[in-house]
Amino acid sequence: MTLVGIIWADSGLGIPDYKAAERSYQLLAQVTGRAGRGEHSGRVIVQTHQPQHYVIEFARSHAYKELYKQEVVFRDALSYPPFGRLINMRFSGEKEEDVAVTARQSADFFRSFKEKTVEIMGPVPSPLSMIKKRFRWQLLLKSREPERLHRLCELAIMEKRHVCRAGVRMGIDVDPENMM
């Protein structure tokens, strides 16, 4: 393959996931690595709205170590893995109001413990707010102290029937691979 075109190369950078930069880099590096493998040299054309974004720059030069150094700084400052732990609480159901109320009640339940080392973000509708006719909301718990997060999860499981409305499912995803 001698010519590779990448349209909207920065589309993955807007995904609400702490791994968005890493995933975007992986895709760009993989696709650009396909050009010119044979006896003919290759060419890559990249269309982007953010040509100076560090991910685009590092992918251009296949500078994975530099990407790593940048990501480590961001993740440490924001307490994202591997410096902190995350728990994504997902709520789903056929009635949006029931799902929203359950997510809010769960957030209030967690906040009632006043865990100073646990950041509670949300609840908010999930980025993919409906799948298979089920509305989805999520609540993110973050801390540098995993034992605090696990304690809150155990309490949530014990109190699930008091917090969750009928027809609402609650899922607990520890250190989620995907935030969607």
TrEMBL record:
PANTHER family: PRIMOSOMAL PROTEIN N. Its EC number is 3.6.4.-. Coiled coil: none annotated. Residues 82-176 form the Primosomal protein N C-terminal domain. GO terms for biological process: DNA recombination; DNA replication initiation; double-strand break repair. InterPro entries: P-loop_NTPase, PriA_C. It comes from Candidatus Electrothrix aarhusensis. It is an enzyme of class 3 (hydrolase). GO terms for molecular function: 3'-5' DNA helicase activity; ATP binding; DNA binding; hydrolase activity. Keywords: ATP-binding, DNA-binding, Helicase, Hydrolase, Nucleotide-binding. This is Replication restart DNA helicase PriA. SUPFAM superfamilies: P-loop containing nucleoside triphosphate hydrolases.
